[in-house]
Structures
1.
Amino acid sequence: MLTYAAKRVAATIPVMAIVAFLVFSLLYIAPGDPAAIIAGDQATPADVDRIRESLGLDRPFVVRFAEWVWRVLNGDLGQSIFTNLSVTHMIGQRIQPTVSLMVLTLILTICVAVPMGVAAAAKQGTWIDRLVMMVSVSGFSVPVFVVGYLMAYVFALQLDLFPVQGYTPIANGIGPWLSNLVLPVVTLSAAFVALIARVTRATMLEVLSQDYVRTARAKGVSQRPVLFVHALKNAAVPVITVIGLGVASLIGGAVVTESVFAIPGVGRLIVDAILRRDYPVIQGCVLMFSFLYVLVNLGVDLLYTVFDPRIRY
Amino acid sequence: MKRRDFLAATAAGATAIGALAAPQLAAAQGSRVLRFVPQANLSSMDAVAGTQYVVRNAALMVWDTLYGVNSQLEPQPQMCEGHQVSDDFKTWTFKLRPGLTFHDGGKVTTRDVLASLKRWMVRDTMGQVITARLDALEALDDQSFRFRLNKPFTKMLFALGKNNAPVALIMPERIAATDPFKLISDYVGSGPMKFNKAEWVPGSKAIFEKFAEYPVRSEAGDWLSGGKRMMFDRIEWQILPDAATATAALQNGEIDWWEQPIPDVVPLLKRNANINVDISDPLGNIGSLRMNHLHPPFNDVRVRRAVMMALNQQDYMQAVVGDDAKLWKLLPSFFTPGTPVYTEEGGDILKGPRRYEEARKLLAEAGYKGEKIILCVATDVAITKAEGDVTADMLAKIGMNVDYQALDWGTVGARRAKKDPPGQGGWHIFHTWHAGADCINPAPYTALDAGGDKAWFGWPNSPEVQARIGDWYAAADLEAEKKAIVAINKASFDYVTYGPTGFFLQYQAWRKNISGVVKAPFPVFWGVQKT
Amino acid sequence: MSTTLLSPVDVAVAPALPDVLPPRRARGRVGMFIHRHPTIFAGGLMLAVFLFIAVFAPYLGTADPTAIAPARRTRPPSELFWFGSDMLGRDVYSRVLYGTRISLAVGFSVAILSSIIGLFIGLVSGFTRWVDAIVMRIMDGLMSIPSILLAIALMALTRGDWKNVVVAITVAEVPRVARLVRGVVLTLREQPYVEAAVASGTRVPKIIWKHILPNTLAPIIVQATFICASAMITEAILSFIGAGTPPTIPSWGNIMAEGRALWQVKPHIVFFPALFLSLTVFAVNLLGDGLRDALDPRLAKRI
């Protein structure tokens, strides 16, 4: 167990190294010039050249990559070339909305999707099953921004129940914080619920056909304990796996959701940065997100051993 | 169901949901906070090294100027008490008014002023004109300083008080010592608002707080002149790049003032009893089709003229501002309509029905044989996107082979600076627009310059245009200026420095409980109040 | 959203993958087929309709989808403009119909490309330990960058062409297929008959051809349909953020991106492409579901 954990942790290091290299080289060869953007509309070409030089954008790849890695290892993600603010600071300012959005989405998803999946599996072949499957297929057929605008239109503009946009820090009270997040969370959950419900259904069906479940049933254990004690416990492993893997697509969805609801999160930060070619910010954010993803999945791997003692490494 | 009914209906047993719906009330935070949506993201605060309009608008709150133009574009004393000028317009002496302090408590002295002016003169066109004739810029004492010139310069006060970037903002000496080509990162000024750097979230919000020690002038505030009286303790800029979100937020009262609502949602906003909508700046904007004069085919004036023959300003303007005919005007001119020197003389090529056939012939005559025309379009900016789409259609009509390059504004910014041949990373055409306030005369009008390599992107090179601009600088009175402007307009059309795509106005919208919003080429925050 | 995420799970859930496909019975009558596989039928039929629209777009009463007419902008749906006109006076009906081409082309291209590349990478890593160690680390690295971010970053590099969109999305999808195939290979290698074949000195290509490919085909086909659906949505999202197909091309994502600022005042501009996109993705997902049930005997035998 311990060696397994150590191995898994060690395995994340090359992954992170590869991510770092991919991200840096990708953006290095990108066209688009931050110097020109800083200079503004009325600047002359000579101005732009001088700004580029003063930013050090004219130096070779290896030098800039080496410097960057060294600084990252020292906990410094660099400075935005537009705002002169440190990237760590900028991410710090925006991490709370994004994490709030994602954590609430995860909670909502699990609360909704797992019962849906269990119900569908228990009533396999009935209208309940078909309904759940239909709802879930529709769930990821409708693009997240369409869901978002619909939600905003109905619940914010027509019914005036929730704010259309923005974010209130949790320090200003749980109520205001939740109120701003309700619509984005529901929006982002739509597709994720669909996914988790399907996986839960599929794995439950798998487990329900296993011998020990049949035995339990034969012994006269009633339906509910069979479903929730025996089956669900065993279905937990794949469901957790999908949740771990789903974090990546959740981040993708968060980018769009944050745009639609004007939430000042890391997702919007990175899209803005990419469109403006703010290299240090892009690199810092992608690295941060990848780190988050790797961390979550490391946690998932380690959770396996808790849920399924049969797994030995 | 309105919020309150909802609250009442769920009051019992649903306190959690009640709490969810309440924050809109809590967020209002009283009448001392203004929530403003600017035209674009505020990514820096340096209106000397950078020239983005949004940066300038923010900087005008934080930094003060020696002089400031009023709504008639006449420079009035602001940080200065007054000035003396010699009869030959060669010696300008200024005295600062007492009591000026920076946000960090330091007194404003002539050392700060001179350092600031020196940095500004490196970057600004008018500043460069001053530099070219400068013998000395010297402090007489802590409160007064003097320009000594070797040639007369009549437009000194306008240069110091003009509203287009680079603005002659006065910063503490230590900040003004920054390389003029590097952005400053210390935002201490002496203006009526302080910038709250700690709460700044670029791409999302920028916070300004009232500077209590600001010595407000006794005159009424008028654009950059007079008393800059702040009625708010706090101004929150919220960046909402998505127009749909901003529309909804204004309707819901989550924001107070939206600088540039897109024209299509204006009818919707006008129908809302709680919202005022009005033209933001009567000086408006001039759309621009910019051609690269360095490379074929647009290095041939006949090809540029062919484009002008086919250029249909009505198409451009409807695409940019929509159906409302009050919002745009045909503009057979390079200058801002409604100003004293405005002229349409020489602009015949843009008038009347479009001459596609003639344009095709002219293209053939110039030897154009279907080479690819690289059209760089910034698709993330509504105005340039609309202009680009119309141009693609228009060029196709006259038989040009268009290569439509969809880029973002940042990439267009980089691309247009390249002088390489269009096939090797350069460009043929891009679009932008100029604030009408910057096109009133040649002084703030970078895009009009035709000085070749040193000119703005596209690098038009016409000694004739340059000579006529020189005449304007030398003009002693309004009549002489008018004459010079007519000559510049004619020469510019003859040479086709760039293609004006029309004159258009933009709206601003604010909640009805906000009063004191005025028309200007920038948002004027002083004098605005919330009830 | 991508159901493609399901794939690694399938491997985890069912270490013993099917070693034989269900016996193919003669499906003589269409009725029988519809009865047995209603989702395949429904999904397939809908998809066929969209394919028809894509192929015959010019003959379905459309005008030039890119011809602008600013004087007739933002008209509501009418006899002249069936789906209304957009902010440049272009006909939304024509644009949406032509947009079908882009969406399907992107979806199919990404599905096919990522299947082929993923299959190749998966097979190689499944059989060669040292390659496996390196390639799978790279795949892990790619997978730990959220696919939309990766695609946006790639689009920032290239621009200008729907083919680049295909490449960008493919790069993001390949690791998933590769992992799926590798998982299948690793599981199958443990199977007695494969072990026997290896022991008896059968060459690797033959093992792949005889034992591995037939068994990876079914999950890959299912996977490919889901990738197709996910690619169509990703394309729309990329355009929505302003990093997708060039705006001169009337793709559904572009039409929505252009119309989204007006969703309160002129909802028709966003509504029709959103409807078409949702229906197409729905059709593909339905087809994928049906294929999964039909090709996966674990589930199929209980239906």
2.
Amino acid sequence: MQDKTIIQVEHLEKKYGDTEVLKEIDGTVKSGQVICVIGPSGAGKSTFLRCLNLLERPTSGQVLFEGTDLVSLKESAVMNLRERMGMVFQNFNLFPNMTVLENLKLAPVRVKHLSDGEAVKKAQELLDRVGLGEKADAYPASLSGGQQQRVAIARALAMDPEVMLFDEPTSALDPEMVGEVLQVMQELANEGMTMVVVTHEMGFAKEVADEVWFMADGYIQERNEPNAFFADPQTQRAQDFISKIIGA
Amino acid sequence: MRVKGLFNKIAQSVLIAAVTLLFLGGLATTGHAADDSLKTVEDKGTLVVATSPDYPPYEFQATVHGKSKVIGMDMDVMKKVAKDLGVKLEIKSMNFDSLLVAIQTGKADVAVGGINPTAERRQSVDFSDIYYLGGQSFLINKTDAGKYKNRSDLKGLKIGAQTGTLQYNLAKQKIPGAQVKGMDKSTDLVLALKTHKIDALGIETPSAEAYVKNDKSLAMINSGYKLDKNEVGAAIAAKKGSDALINAMNKSVATINKDNLTDQYLADAGKYMKVNTQNTTMWHYSNYFVTGVEYTLLISAVSVVIGVLLGTLLALMRFSKNKLLHGLAVAYIEFVRGTPLMVQVMFVYFGIGIIVNIPALLSGIIAVSLNSGAYVAEIIRSGIDSVAKGQTEAASSLGLSKGDTMRFVILPQAIRNIWPALGNEFISLIKESSIVSIIGVTDLIYQTNIVRADTYRGVMPIFITMLIYFVITFLLTRVLNHYEGKMKHAR
């Protein structure tokens, strides 16, 4: 199970004008793996994640998704592959003009050409799975932040993605709602979903991740199995980071 | 007599320049061809005459055998001319300012409307011989009749006259110390007189007589001006170089002058004016307002729909990566927003009319729609900009195409955000559509002016029209608010 490579990144660089945000990044995500990307603010974690499905176009380097280099493809071709990488955003980004059910149905019907009945059935299953079966007809604005984020996860899952990308999924939540979202994510991980998670939740990283990638200053400074990483960080940057977190 | 106002003059100059360009660009072949003006009229069997029926007794509207018709002295003259030519007469109503343009652009064969054959006008059109000589008079309030007995009593007073007319110039030159106030319409001037904003009104004798007959509070005095008949007479205007047609018409004019037929024509006009003023309640004229409302609503409704479709298209073009599409949309929007709707209406009717003959109503709808499209485009653009970037990213991460993202995610949210601005645009469109009255579309404003001219009541028709516009926009606002509430609900 753990041998098929889903995403492979080679010499990835991203510049905004003269500012180098990502420098020479390499990395491999294998099927079923959960990668947690951690690090201080401004390290380039979110940019890195957004380069994986080309929401940001890298300045140079390769992003291989199941062997295909996305960077070399045209935008229209990228679109076809992007649907297979689910993404969950910090601010949920649910469509406020649609009900929860419509949010889940839209892409399966329009992109995968599922019939309305199939899409509804699938959406309902997913909503039950994230514990929001009752909320199918609600509008996003009437839901709490935690509920909205669970809907957003279900919406991404509705496209049957190969991998799920999480961009600080709990950072915009009130503290009491963080748990319900992390729980859904943990269940997902337990079911074998391949996941790349940018997060500040060290507890989650420790418990769920197969690998922790520590980013600072546009580099992946260190990567390791979580217990080893947190117990014995190798680089000075990682040591500073961890001591600050524990201190706080 | 009647001459166009300054602003209209400018608008018209722009239009004529544009029309000339069109000629040079596309139709250079016309040149100085043989004069087939008479033959053209005879071949088609109709003489199309343009006129502005808000000027009794020259031309006005009255109900004849249950139908609203354009009648008056000028119309009787033209009936005689058509009969002598052996063709049918077709009357096209439009704003006075548009008459000469109409014959220059072939919308009509000839134009009448108490038009003076001045040297200035002779540069752009040809005239028949003079068929009527109107004298110059002053209208005054009857209460002042004791004070003002002749022109010398008007020294230093406020004198009203139609802007740019002979009367205006005469008052300036020949009444010492007079403050001359100019307005566009004689109905407005009479109103100014009755409300004592001016002390006397320089006007042509037949019109003055008509007003005095129909309004007991008015009186008239003779001007005593000594004038050249070329400046005060009325003649039929035709396109430059139509000597054959002019010569044929002059035969009829000669008979009219020899037999003094205009006396009879004026008497007939007077009868109809009496009919018109027997019952000047607004209810009696309600069918005029109903027609006006129908046209105003028709133009507005069609233009809103086309305007929104066009505006959406233009907004999407503006967001396009294709430089040509983007540039076209920007140029269109800038140009349309940078030119007055009035000029656009005239351009579509007269300018484009040279190539394709578009009826007045359709011209009006086209111009108002094209105009609204530019404004709607900018509103929609601001709406699209107002939707958070994360929405596009989320849609894109789900693999939705750009088109689907626009259609299902961005536009519905954009429309909710811009709904109030869009509502404003619809309301101002209803009001601004009134500009089509200048090309003779019988919208609410046009009909109002007809009623004002027919009934000699200056204020009441304006008041009624104001109420009608208010009711229409008020109802529209309620409908828009209803949908705004619905969209808010869906948040």
